[in-house]
Amino acid sequence: MQKAANVNSTVPHCPKQLVIALLVATVSGCAGQTISQPSRPVNVLLVTLDTTRADRLGCYGNGRIDTPHLDRLAREGTLFEQAFTPIPSTLPSHCSIMTGNYPAYHGVHDNGVYSLDDTANTLAEILQSRGYDTAAFVSAFVLDHQFQLDQGFNVYDDQMRLPLIQADPVQLAEKAPEDRKRWVAQLATKYHRRAEDVTPQAIEWLRQERAKPFFLWVHFFDPHQPYQAPGEWATKYDADYTGPMDGDSAIFFSEMERHGKRYRRQDWQHMVARYDAEIAYMDHWIGRLLQACEEIDRADETLVIVVGDHGESFGEHNIQIWEHNQTAFDEVMRVPLIIRRPDGVGAGTKVSRLVRTIDVAPTVLDSLGHPGWEKMQGESLLSLLEDPRAYAPGEILVEARRGKQVLTAKHSYVGLRNEQFKLILTLHPEQDLTVIDAPKGILAVELYDVKRDPQEKTSLIDEQAKRVDSMKQDLADKHGEVYRDINVERELNALESEALRSLGYVK
After folding, report:
1. What is the pLDDT of residue 410?
2. What's the pLDDT at 38?
3. CB-based burial of residue 487 (10 Å sphere; 0-12 exposed, 13-18 middle, 19+ buried)?
4. How far is CA 43 from CA 79, 124, 128, in A?
């Protein structure tokens, strides 16, 4: 297996070629037949949006936030209204996007304590084996090359600039459990970078002279907590606010403690406004990236796909606010997905069928006329671009496993969602997903009619007892079908940073 060069690349100009810009928000499944095949090599640009709720984009009906570049893509392409991730954590979600498989198969269930196994067959590896020049520019430490999502990339730029938490890493680690000290210390060291940093690097690589077609993946992390877009972006949507909030959840929770574990409405609104500002800021830099593509290639030669890895909680369902990986509700599972084909097929249409992010890799390979995607658990969405009413799998397995998280939670969640109903099982965090049909392992059961109750407020376990039993069995059966017995848990002592050295963990 060819591994990536972990470098910060800078390069000259690129010839006019066909570009597929895949901006990944959340895609879902359709067993599509190939609509058309390219007559010459096609380039691929994949852009993934971290922590991006679909309902915060203009093209998804939000009139408050300025997202003109994503909105334009939606007008010129196909917007998937019901796209979902199988897991609301960055590393495993991206592993699903890149392999076309569920976490139960690729084996990565959380950030930091897992890595993608060498036996995984990623989209980058497939394209690299077929003559593509491959590069990735990621914006968060959780996608660092040591977690092995760099498989198949000739260049893997993971040079971070900013800490996630403004704190002394030594003191921060001292408060953590012994087996989590290394990871927690990392949060206060070089952990992420902004769109204004990653975009120019990607554009420089994009302009490089090359004889091969290319696959370029660009990852934007900006909407992730803390919500601190730079300069005038920060207060774009709540300029008159005068309270203590600056987008950092630590300050929000500190103020909650001062007010008897209750938050003030104006503080919550300002935090949401800060999040919205990050979305608008990210869209601005996505526009720069797309402009660079159009300067290199004719606009009618570019296929664009935009997909998110997961959403964010604003405090719905009485769960951790400003968080995403401790729940399986739709505010964190639903993501944006937009696909724009170069031939204009599907322009201006919206697809209401349920699709999945595991369908992204199959769709790319099918678009290029490459075989191999049929072996993935995801399915190609090309037929939905031609006919929004075409076949789609219409269901997704979801999970949020917490037993192996850096800071463990009280519960884990697994579920099955189709176009009308959603089943969520609450498990002990150490519960083995292969025995979810064992009654003693299930702590709680919820069933929602997501068509009539899209905010998932009223559980129907009493009124729909037979459906609950049927979906529980279906979930157990389907999970068994996708499960692969693979252990890719990793030791935390592989993490390295200046903070770890100061703690004496790394020499």
Report:
1. 77
2. 53
3. exposed
4. 21, 12, 12
Here the CATH number for the domain that contains residue 153 is 3.40.720.10
For 310-394, list the strands marked E by DSSP: 334-335, 337-340, 349-356
CA–CA dist 127, 364 (Å, integer): 10
Among 243, 252, 397, 415, smallest CA distance to 320 is for 252
In degrees to the nearest 10, what's the CA dihedral of 160, 83, 375, 475? 110
pLDDT at position 431: 64
Per DSSP, what are the bridge partners of residue 413?
400, 426
- Chunked mean pLDDT (size 10), the chain, 507 residues: 46 40 41 48 88 97 96 94 96 97 92 88 95 95 94 97 84 76 81 96 92 92 96 94 93 90 92 98 97 76 87 88 89 95 88 97 90 91 91 91 67 92 87 56 91 96 94 88 71 57 60
The residue to which tokens 């249409």 are assigned: 349
How far is 306 from 75, CA to CA, in rounded Å? 13
Residue 6 CB-density burial (10 A; 0-12 exposed, 13-18 middle, 19+ buried): middle
Look at residue 58 and give its three-state secondary structure.
helix
Q: Which helix (H) or strand (E) holds 474?
A: helix 465-482
Residue 252 lies in a domain: yes
Whose tokens are 């997903």? That residue is 433
Sign of CA dihedral 198, 199, 201, 202: positive
Kindly provide the b/e burial profile for residues 200-239, where b requires at least 16 CB atoms within 10 angstroms of the residue's own CB. Answer: bbbbbbbbbebeebbbbbbbbbbbbbbbbbeeebbbbbbe
Please state, in angstroms and rounded to a whole number, the distance separating the CA atoms of residues 157 and 11: 13
Bridge partners of 335? 83
Interacting residues of 6 by C-beta distance below 8 A, sequence separation 6+: 145, 150, 156, 157, 158
Helix or strand run (H / E) with residue 205: helix 195-206
What is the 8-class DSSP label of residue 40?
A: S
In a domain, residue 314? The reply is yes
What was the pLDDT predicted at 497? Answer: 63
* Domain presence at residue 8: no
Amino acid letter, residue 326: Q
Residue 451 burial (C-beta neighbours within 10 Å; 0-12, 13-18, 19+): exposed
Position 204 scores a pLDDT of: 96
Place of tokens 């591994």: 3
Residue at 7 is within a domain: no
Helices (H) and strands (E) in the chain, counts: 14, 14
d(CA 285, CA 220): 9
What backbone torsions phi and psi does residue 372 show, to the nearest 5 degrees?
115, -30
Residue 276 domain boundaries: 18-503
Count of domains observed in the chain: 1
